[in-house]
Amino acid sequence: MENKNALAALAALAQESRLAVFRLLIEAGPGGMAPGQIGERLGIPPSSLSFHLKELTHAGLIAPTQSGRYLIYAAQMPTMHALIGFLTENCCGGNPCGPDAGPALA
Question: To which H or E segment does residue 73 belong?
Fold first, then answer.
């Protein structure tokens, strides 16, 4: 993942509603959810939700697919994994790390 893609993804997630939408779609799995379901579950009005869905789509974190008359949004797992990989690429300077490697941060 390139810096510009990581920045776009992180910027998209740096907003409470968009983070909630993304986490909900991660939970929903590959089947995704329709915008109406997302808005209902999170209490986001349709006009605001469409803006947030557009931002997450633009960042490559979610993607819509057509299902009959409806759009279904699903999290893009490859993008999420690439972002995590980008953030942890040089983790601990090559030294072993993990839950047992040292003091936990609060």
Answer: strand 70-75
